[in-house]
Amino acid sequence: MTLRNIRIVLVRPSHPGNIGAAARAMKTMGLSRLYLVQPRLFPHETTTTFSSNAVEVLEHAVVCQTLEEAISDCVAVFGTSARKRSFQKPLFDVRQAAEKVLNEYTEQEVAIVFGCERCGLENDELLKCHFHVCIPSNPVYESLNLAAAVQVISYELRMAFLNKGLDSRLRGNDGEGRLSTVDELEGLYQQIENTLIQVGFINPKHPRQAMKRVRRMTARAMLDKEDMDLLRGMWTVLEKEIR
Ligand code: SAH
After folding, report:
1. Does pLDDT of 80 surpass 80?
2. How many domains does the chain have?
3. Strand (E) positions, the chain?
């Protein structure tokens, strides 16, 4: 699973720096497909400077004349806006929207559309979007800088993507990335406890909280098979040294 099916569409971006900063924001979060609808200035030196090392996102950017052209092959189009509009399409906050994208459109093309710095998306452009997305912000100062909005949305897409990876790890029951079973965890706890008793860290008559905490810690860490093999290997060497 990747984020390759997701494109970021900037409609009439006016500041070249924002295009570069948006490309950088995308790349840091693993997104790579940028569409520009009537950019005022592109390509531009300032864009390249602001993109830092994300120039390949700019090199592959698709320049379009209309929003329709940028989204024509998409099955889901999310329009971003800080302002609440009276004719609202289903409205999601950015986290819900990211989860929806990752859960429902794993293969098909999805667009996240952003408006221009000065006036945002026009009403008829928002009408072309299937869903509206807002970044919850200060109600009396709710509009983020364009590239900052791209960053927040890209970040949420990445988080949803990572959580999804974790879900499939939980679902999988074999092979790489498989989570450790209760039996395997119990084996590890036993090994840790025995060793700690041998070195006098745990007094078997008054064991206190140590092992409870170890259990809580390992539960949080969600050890997979490779983690488990590493830990078992380390403790086995320690045991040998102690003997
Ligand atoms: N003055 C414009 C603001 C545009 S900011 C207006 O009133 O709409 C540029 C773009 O960043 C917006 O069109 C939108 O795509 C995105 N954006 C900024 N703040 C946002 C927010 N709080 N939620 C969702 N998108 C936001």
Report:
1. yes
2. 2
3. 6-11, 33-37, 62-64, 76-80, 91-93, 110-114, 131-134
